[in-house]
Amino acid sequence: MTEKGLTIALGGGAAKGLAHIGVLKGVEEDGVEVTAIAGSSMGSIIGALSAQGLSARELEALVCSIDWVRLGRIMVTSVSGRAFHDMLQETFGGTLIEDLEIAYAAVCGDLDTGEMAVLDSGDLAEAVCASSAIPGILPSIRVGNRRLVDGAVVEPVPVTAATAMANGPILAVSVVRPPDRREKGGTIITTMPIRVELPVAFRRIESWLRRQRVDRLEGEISARVSRWESVFRSFHIMQHRLATCSRLDVPMIEPRVGRFGWFDFHRVDEIIAAGYDAYRTWARDCSPRTPN
Fold first, then answer.
1. Cβ pair 41, 150 in contact under 8 A
2. How far apart are CA 253 and CA 255, in angstroms?
3. In the structure, how many helices (H) and strands (E) does the chain have?
4. Sign, CA torsion 272/15/162/201
5. Which residues are catalytic?
6. Taking 50 as the threshold, does the pLDDT of residue 284 lie above it?
7. Which of 16, 96, 165, 210 is the one with CA 20 to 30 A from 241?
């Protein structure tokens, strides 16, 4: 249990989940101490990086510096989706959850029982891999005697886990609301990301990217991405409906990221800005007083 500070629940959402960084940026600017983070799917990845001690600015530098075009091609051509998990192992390997600077929990779904599995100790890379293992896209991860998949299957916004960790205010962030009629749909990756300085501790991601081979299967890559976009869109519509059934007493921010596609990682600056704007609106209109 945390003794003070804010506990944050970060939901899943593929590229849309980069909006979590904008929310964290606003929280930091307001001087609010985050003492615990629960994450599902993409929220587990952003949450793990934050729990390791990276500031929102460093997170922004990291995601803006990744070659998303090359990474996307590697993921699409990867056999059984192993490349994504290999990259997470490269990023988080050797770190234990209990050694993190901020209390952390990754929410997963048990493929055999349908129950929620909350990983709050043990190997960080294993926990993040399991929480982000999208069914049909990425392989399940065996942790002990359980086969675990994407946490968004059981709880798209991990409010239950956050509540168990907290002894103070909780803030949930959901990025799976479908676009309204005024929002335009996103696009497939077509441009290179903005380049800024990468945090030294995570240059191993770039090193991993340089070691990977990228097959030249232009037509097939496009077809696979289109199929994945359809799967993700359907998956996240279901997640949004589940998220709306979450605890109503927990404040929830919903950044306006419906216009972005699930693979619009190259639009990272726009997505982060949407998260920041959503936090600022919430902080102005709805925010309770939180301890520093």
1. yes
2. 6
3. 10, 8
4. negative
5. 41, 150
6. yes
7. 165
